[in-house]
Amino acid sequence: MRMTMALTATLLAFTGAAYAQTAAPAANPLDTIPEKMPFSTPYGAPIGLAKAQAAVAAAVAEATAKGWPLNVAVYDSGANLVAFARMDGAQVGSIAIAEHKARTSVKYRRETKVFEGAVQNGLNYILSLDDVIASRGGIPLVEDGKIVGAIGCSGATGSQDEAVCKAGAATIK
C-alpha cells in the first residue's frame, strides 16, 4: 500500500511538473491593441446622383466587356441607395446582395473582402455584427480622402464582382 501511494505521489509530481513546463497558449490576436484606428477614413458629403450613375455605368461597361451579367448598386455616405442597375440576364437573387455589399462597405468603411477574409480565418464573430455580408464585391467610394459612398456588385464569383466594383470605384477621384 505504501509503495502504491509513493508511486502515485511520484507520478503526480512528475505529471504536474511536466504540465507546468508546457508553453503558455499564444496570445489571442484579437487582444492586440493597434496604435492607430483601422478603417477610420472619415465620411464626406453623400455622393450625388450623377457621380453614382457614372460609377454604375463604368461597372456595367466592365461587366459587359467581360460577359458577366451583374447587379450594381451605389449607396451614399449615409447608407442610402442612390443608383442601381440590373444587367440583362443578371440573377434576381443578387439584387439584394449587391445592395447589401454596398451598404456594408459604407457602414463599416472597408471593402467587404475584409469580412470574407476574417471568416475564412476563423473569426466567425464577424457574422454576429449587424448588417455584415462576408463576401467580396463591396468597395467604399473615396473622394478627396473622404468616403462619399460605396459600390456593390453581385451575380458572378466574388472575384468577378470585386473586379467590376473596382472599375466603378475608379470613376471617383
Q: What are the SSEs and their pairings?
A:
Elements: H1 2-21, H2 49-66, E1 71-76, E2 81-86, H3 94-108, H4 112-120, E3 138-143, E4 146-154, H5 158-169
Antiparallel strand pairs: 1-2, 1-4, 3-4
Helix pairs in contact: 2-5
Descriptive notes:
This protein has 173 residues and is of the alpha+beta class. It folds into two domains: 2-31, no CATH class; 49-169, Haem-degrading domain (Beta-Lactamase). 43% of the residues lie in helices and 16% in strands. The protein contains five helices and four strands; from the N terminus they run H-H-E-E-H-H-E-E-H. The chain has helices spanning 2-21, 49-66, 94-108, 112-120, 158-169; strands at residues 71-76, 81-86, 138-143, 146-154. The protein has a four-stranded antiparallel sheet.
